[in-house]
Design a protein that fits this description.
globular; alpha+beta; 5 strands
C-alpha cells in the first residue's frame, strides 16, 4: 500500500552515482585502440562490481542502462541510504574512487528517494 511505501522511504535518502572511464592520455593510435578495446570489455563488469560494493552501505539499489554519448560510455545507479548511515555510504564512494582511479565516479545527493517510487494510476 501507499502508506507502507511512504513508511519504507520515510527516513531514507537517495544517492545517484555515475561512473565513466577517465579519458585516456594521448598515445600512438595502435596502443590507443588496444587499450580502448580492453577497457570497454572490462568497464561494465568493473562498474557493476563497484555498485555491488556500494550496495552494502545501502538499503536498495536501482541500476540504469548504460548510456553512450559523445564523451563516452557511462553507467548510473541510485542507492537508497539510511539517513544516519549517509556518512558511511559517502566514505564507501570515496574508497571506490581510490580503488578505481581509472574511473570517474560522481556522487550526487542526498536527494529525495524519487528513483524508488513507481506509481501507476488508472485501471
Amino acid at each position: 500500500t501507499l502508506v507502507d511505501a511512504v513508511g519504507f522511504l520515510g527516513d531514507r535518502l537517495m544517492a545517484r552515482v555515475r561512473v565513466a572511464p577517465q579519458p585516456l592520455p594521448p598515445v600512438d593510435s595502435a596502443t590507443l585502440t588496444d587499450s580502448r578495446e580492453v577497457r570497454a570489455a572490462d568497464f561494465e563488469t568493473t562498474v557493476f562490481d563497484s555498485f555491488r560494493f556500494l550496495k552494502r552501505s545501502a538499503v536498495a539499489c536501482v541500476t540504469f542502462a548504460p548510456q553512450v554519448s559523445t564523451t563516452g560510455k557511462s553507467v548510473e545507479a541510485s542507492f537508497l541510504v539510511e539517513r544516519d548511515k549517509w556518512g558511511s555510504f559517502h566514505d564507501a564512494v570515496g574508497e571506490e574512487r581510490q580503488r578505481l582511479p581509472e574511473l570517474e565516479i560522481e556522487e550526487s545527493g542526498p536527494l529525495p528517494p524519487y528513483d524508488f517510487v513507481r506509481l501507476q494510476f488508472g485501471a
